[in-house]
Amino acid sequence: YDAHLTPYYGKGWKRRGIIVVLHNITNIRRLEQIRSDFIANVSHELKTPVTSVKGFTETLLSNEVNDEKTRNYFLQIIYDESDRIDRLIHDLLQLSRIEKHDIPLNIKTVDVIQLIHSTAATLQNEIEKKGLTLQLPNLDEKEMFVELDVDRFSQVILNLIANAINYSKENGNIKVGVVFSKDEFVLAVTDDGIGIPKNTISRVFERFYRVDKARSRHSGGTGLGLSIVKHLVELHKGRIDVESVEGEGSTFTVIIPRKHHDVSS
Ligand code: ADP
Q1: Per the database record, which ranges form the Histidine kinase domain (predicted)?
Q2: Residue 160 beta carbon below 6 angstroms from any ligand 1 atom
């Protein structure tokens, strides 16, 4: 009988036992950590270009730069850095919409070989600038149809080829291969570029993870491309994998079902 509990439970209350409520907060802590890391990353990614835009604008406003060439050089930096902020915000919004499942897919039956060609054509300038050779699946091949969302899947193709370009050496080779089985479509983007170190390969699909931050930033990367690609592939009920040898090159392989509704869940 615990006298001090009488006010709460009335006279004669007897302790029969104790109810212990244990919450496993490991998972909550982990999610909090991920969220706070994410906010720190976003803030850092935004701070760098904003600082640069502010600094160069201040210098221009102070009227201390008189020659036109230098003024134009500074203006170009301001433009490029604003562009980076724009891209980052665009990627972040897209990632957040995908993660909230706020992206309804517009599934159509599409000739994927045609789609690969039209998507790759938008990167022609970058390919030429680096003197790269891009090998695409043969257009004369029989039309190969897959059910997918044209806009979202062309973004998958675009991001993978853009990465192959960014992480290639001058005059390198990029190959986009396709394999069709009855049920599945396989897309493989291979480059003979810088490759990915073995100990970091499992992390490349994480948000903001970059093997070499300076190189990624220099080529305009936001560090979000592959995590967006992975989400988009999963929306198509598919999977993505990477194989790479540092210094020799990488292959990113995407596998999606040819009929979108065949797979439930
Ligand atoms: P980024 O904007 O930095 O390219 P991504 O999410 O697309 O971001 O890629 C994450 C990281 O994975 C890159 O910073 C790079 O280190 C590595 N990576 C991606 N694609 C390739 C590739 N084809 N070859 C070598 N490394 C790559």
Answers
A1: 41-260
A2: no
- In short, whether 175's Cβ falls inside 6 Å of ligand 1 is no
Band the pLDDT of 3: cuts 50, 70, 90: low
From the list 114, 264, 81, 249, the residue with the least C-alpha distance to 172 is: 249
What is the model's pLDDT at position 263?
45
For atom 7 of ligand 1, the residue with the nearest CA is: 225
Contact predicate 204/211, CB 8 Å: yes
**Any atom of ligand 1 within 6 Å of the Cβ of 249:** no
pTM score, whole prediction: 0.85
- What is the ipTM score, two decimals? 0.99
| CB neighbourhood size of 27 (10 A) | 9
Quick one: tokens of 118?
A: 């039209």
Compute, in angstroms, the gap from residue 250 CA to the centroid of ligand 1: 10
In angstroms, the CA 79 to CA 129 distance is 21
